[in-house]
Design brief:
Layout lengths: L1 H18 L5 E7 L4 E8 H8 L7 H6 L2 H10 L1 E4 L7 E11 L9 E10 L8 E6 L10 E9 L10 E7 L10 E4 L4 H19 L1 H12 L3 E4 L2 E5 L2 H27 L7 H20 L7 H21 L5 H34 L2 H26 L1
Parallel strand pairs: 1-7
Antiparallel strand pairs: 1-2, 2-5, 3-6, 4-5, 6-9, 7-8, 10-11
Helix pairs in contact: 5-10, 6-8, 6-10, 6-11, 7-9, 7-10, 8-9, 8-11
C-alpha cells in the first residue's frame, strides 16, 4: 500500500511539473586562484513571487525599491562551503535586468546577479560544496543549472562552458542537496597545455578564421598575368609565397594577441567580428581577381592584426595573474600555429597539384572564393 501511495505522489509531482513548468536559474562559475566569480540568471517572475509572495513586485521594482532586501534574501540562500565544512564569504556585486531572448517580442526577463565567492585562507577554490535554494525553497519545480564558464587550468572558456550539475528539490524526500564542485588541480603546466589545446580548437572550430586562411592560400601557387591569375609558378615559387603569407598572418595576429591579452589594446568584440568577415570577403575577391598584386603578405599581416584581437578577447576574459597570463599567451599562440600548420600541410599539396591543371584549378579557385564571399557577406549582415 505504501508503494502505491509513493507512486501516486510521484505521479502528482510529475504532472504538476508538466502542467506548470518553471523557468530555470542558470549559474555560471568562473574559477580563479583566489576565489570564484559567479553569475546568476534568475527568472524575474519566479524571484518576484518568492521574494514577496503576498504582493509580487515587478522586476524593475525589485531592483529599485527593494534592492537591499533582495540582496539580503539572496545572501541568506547561497552558502558555499569547503569540503571540511568551512564557510566561504559571499559578496554581492552588480544586479541588472536582461531580456531572455532579445530577438523575440516577449516580456520574459532574468535578473542577472554578480557574486564573488571567497574561500577561507588555505582552502582551494577548486573544490567546494554549493548550498543554493533561491526560489526552489518555495517553488519545488524550480531548478538551478550550474556550469563552469571559465577555468584556466582545465581550458574551459566562455565559448564552451562545462555543465557541473543541477540543484533541485528531490521529489522522493523534498530535500535540496548541495552541489559538489570538484576540479582537477593541473597547475601551471596543465594550464599551459590547456591553452595550447584551446588555441588549436579556436582555429579548428572557428569557421571564419579557418576560411580566411584557406582563401588566402587559394591563389598562392599562381603567377599574375596582367589583371588576372595566370599559370602555376612552380614548386619553389608556390612554397615561398605560401610561407610568406602564413608567416605574415602569424606575425600580425601574434602582435595584437599580446597587446589585447595584457590590456594594452581594447576593442569591442562586435566591430572585430565584422572586420574579420570583411577580411574574408576581400580575400575572396582577391582569389578571383588579383587586387593586391605582390602585396599579399601586407594584407595577410594587416588582417592578422584584426584576427589577433579576437584571439585576445578569449585570453583577457580569463582574468589571470602575470605568470598564468604569460603562459596562456604563449600556449594559445602555439596552439594556433600548430593548427594552422596542420591546415597548410593538409591543403597545400592538393592546391599545388590542382594548380598544374589550369582549367580544373580555375573552377576550384573561383568556386571556393565565391562560396567564401557569400558566407562572408552573410556574416557581415548578421554581425552588423
Amino acid at each position: 500500500m505504501k508503494f502505491f501511495k509513493l507512486l501516486f505522489l510521484n505521479f502528482l509531482f510529475v504532472t504538476a511539473l508538466m502542467a506548470h513548468p518553471s523557468p530555470n536559474t542558470l549559474i555560471l562559475l568562473d574559477i580563479q586562484s583566489k576565489g570564484v566569480a559567479a553569475e546568476l540568471h534568475i527568472p524575474a517572475g519566479e524571484l518576484g513571487m518568492v521574494f514577496n509572495a503576498a504582493n509580487p513586485k515587478t522586476a524593475t521594482e525589485l531592483l529599485g525599491n527593494f534592492a537591499d532586501s533582495l540582496q539580503t534574501y539572496l545572501l541568506s540562500h547561497i552558502t558555499p562551503i569547503s569540503m571540511n565544512g568551512q564557510k566561504w564569504s559571499v559578496t554581492m556585486g552588480e544586479m541588472h535586468l536582461e531580456r531572455v531572448n532579445p530577438k523575440e517580442r516577449n516580456t520574459l526577463e532574468d535578473i542577472i546577479v554578480q557574486l564573488w565567492l571567497k574561500p577561507p585562507t588555505g582552502a582551494s577554490s577548486r573544490q567546494f560544496l554549493l548550498n543554493y535554494d533561491v526560489v526552489m525553497h518555495q517553488v519545488v519545480t524550480h531548478s538551478a543549472l550550474v556550469s563552469i564558464r571559465q577555468d584556466w587550468e582545465t581550458g574551459i572558456v566562455a565559448e564552451h562552458p562545462a555543465q557541473v550539475g543541477v540543484i533541485r528539490v528531490e521529489p522522493h524526500n523534498n530535500q535540496i542537496f548541495p552541489l559538489t564542485v570538484s576540479l582537477q588541480n593541473k597547475g601551471l603546466w596543465g594550464g599551459f597545455l590547456s591553452m595550447v589545446g584551446l588555441g588549436r580548437k579556436h582555429i579548428s572550430e572557428g569557421t571564419d578564421h579557418l576560411l580566411f586562411l584557406l582563401v588566402l592560400l587559394l591563389a598562392a601557387p599562381l603567377l599574375v598575368s596582367g589583371n588576372r591569375w595566370g599559370a602555376y609558378g612552380g614548386l619553389r615559387y608556390a612554397l615561398m609565397r605560401l610561407l610568406k603569407i602564413v608567416t605574415a598572418f602569424t606575425v600580425g595576429h601574434s602582435l595584437t594577441l599580446l597587446a589585447g591579452a595584457v590590456g594594452w589594446l581594447r576593442v569591442p568584440s562586435q566591430p572585430i567580428e565584422v572586420l574579420i568577415a570583411f577580411s574574408i570577403l576581400i580575400s575572396a575577391i582577391h582569389a578571383i581577381r588579383p587586387i593586391f598584386r605582390h602585396r599579399e603578405i601586407y594584407i595577410a599581416a594587416g588582417f592578422g592584426l584584426i584576427h589577433g584581437l579576437a584571439f585576445a578577447n578569449t585570453i583577457s576574459a580569463l582574468q589571470l595573474d602575470a605568470a598564468a597570463m604569460t603562459l596562456s599567451i604563449l600556449g594559445f599562440n602555439i596552439g594556433i600555429e600548430l593548427q594552422q600548420l596542420l591546415v597548410v600541410v593538409l591543403t597545400v599539396p592538393g592546391l599545388i597539384l590542382l594548380s598544374k591543371q589550369p582549367k580544373i584549378y580555375d573552377f576550384v579557385r573561383i568556386g571556393g572564393a565565391l562560396l567564401a564571399a557569400i558566407a562572408a557577406s552573410a556574416w557581415i549582415m548578421e554581425r552588423v
